[in-house]
Amino acid sequence: MKPLLKCLFGTVAVLCLIGPSSSFSLAKPTPDEAIMMLKEGNKRFVNGTSIHPRTGQKRLYLAGHENQGDYAYATVIACSDSRVPVERIFDAGVMDIFVVRVAGNVCDTDEAGSIEYGLAHVNTPVLVVLGHTQCGAVTAVTHAVQGKGHELEWNIPPLVDNIEPAVKRAMALNPMIKGDDIIPNAIVENVWQGIDDLFMKSPATRNIVKSGKAKVIGAIYDVGSGTINWLPENKVSEILSQVESNPGRVMNPMADMGHVPSPHVKP
User: Fold this and answer.
1) Whole-angstrom Cα distance, residue 164 to residue 174?
2) What radius of gyration, in Å, describes the C-alpha atoms of the chain?
3) Mapping DSSP to helix (H, G, I), strand (E, B) and coil, where does residue 100 land?
4) What is the pLDDT of residue 16?
5) What pTM was computed for the model?
6) Residue 184, CA atoms < 13 Å, CB-side half-sphere
7) Every domain of the chain and the residues it spans
8) What is the per-residue pLDDT across 105-143, written as a single tens digit (0 to 9) for each?
9) 3-state secondary structure at position 229
10) At a CB cut-off of 8 Å and minimum separation 6, what does 132 contact?
11) Which class is 30-45+54-246 in CATH?
12) How buried is 92 (Cβ within 10 angstroms: 0-12 exposed, 13-18 middle, 19+ buried)?
């Protein structure tokens, strides 16, 4: 084979191996398009028709050479529960979803910071706050509020204390529902609580949502069926409006002088 042809064929082979570079990457989807991609991925997962996209050698090469911010289309905060494998339930691949996982899918300081990174630096056009059925964290807090809790290890109570307002609100809104029957309601309220906590702590997230660059949406994953129940988007707008009128919300979107503030100093 002549040297020129060998060079051309070699170039084609390399391009076929690595796939498109960032200069050829597609533009990010709009928030609504990203939500639709997540919904369609979950439908494939539930129907047993997952295609496991963007998981081959081409994508791994890109992951090692490109910026995830050019590719990821969603940030998802989910529970650490092993029954909630985030990328699989959305039939997503490498560099598709920026995932934050914590017991009870709570949005405290560490989680809010991770979400800010996903929205402001990975530039995802959507954030999903994903609760799930049979959540152990919500169940434990519900039992504690009902006076039948049990002793917990040292670091667990401050981890799940964000869930307590959600449980109490679920009980107040549904006074006729008793015992463990209130837990599904508390799981939904915990998603709304997480969004409220996030907006209270993160003016950067509020600004991104208000600008239309990203949407926040709540959802509940059914661990027994794989189906995701998408919660009303207008509820997120209501929560954002309430937070904007709350004088206790954090106001400064940036850390002073580019440094991480002390946890003992209020922004």
Assistant:
1) 15
2) 21
3) strand
4) 36
5) 0.87
6) 6
7) 30-45+54-246
8) 999 999 999 999 999 999 999 999 999 999 999 999 999
9) strand
10) 78, 79, 81, 83, 84, 105, 187, 220, 221, 222, 223
11) alpha beta
12) buried
